[in-house]
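User: Can you predict the 3D structure for this chain?
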Amino acid sequence: MSKNLDWLITNIREDLKKASNREIEDIYNSLKKLLNKYDNDTFIKNIKDFLKKVLKSKREKCSLFFEDIIEGIDSMSDKTKQELKKDLLDLSNIHRTIFEDLAALIGAL
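Assistant: Here is the predicted structure, written as structure tokens:
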């Protein structure tokens, strides 16, 4: 896995811990779409995942969705990994602090 993708995964895990309830709602909706796009689990695994998520908060469900998506990275093609990286970058932008915005701005200069 590339260093950029590792950083992105770590960043999103932190975002899930710190995001506001409104941001969690947006993240949740985005992760549901990503899960449908990238999750290639078997039917039985999907049932087990569903049962784990039943009584969880949205924040906890987001973490479970995210972990389910990234557990399949090693079996993805390079093209799919690049698509996932772009999608994860979009996801990470939902919860960006002012300091992350400033770092991005300075990096663009």
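The mean pLDDT is 80. Residues 32 and 65 are 7 Å apart (CA to CA).
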